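Sequence in, structure out.
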Amino acid sequence: MRKVDIVSKISDVTGVPKTDVLITLEAFFKEVKNQVKSGESVYVRGFGSFIPKLRKQKIGRIITRGESIVIPEHYIPAFKPAKIFMDQVKKSHKPGEESKEENK
């Protein structure tokens, strides 16, 4: 599913014009990015949390040159799904079943 599909579904369900849904969705994404970029977490009850996650300093390798380099500690954006969301996904997919994406 792509962003345009999400906008279409929301528009169909709510009756709100697609342009208004797209503007709202873009504003939501922008606000989440700004908050995580500034070091704040964004909690959406029943869905999950967008958090800045610290990656510790580590030693990396440039394989082509055989060199070791130091990768400094840095933050990356991360998403942690809510427990209720995880439970819903676990119940809807049984082990050994193929997903809809794999059938295409």
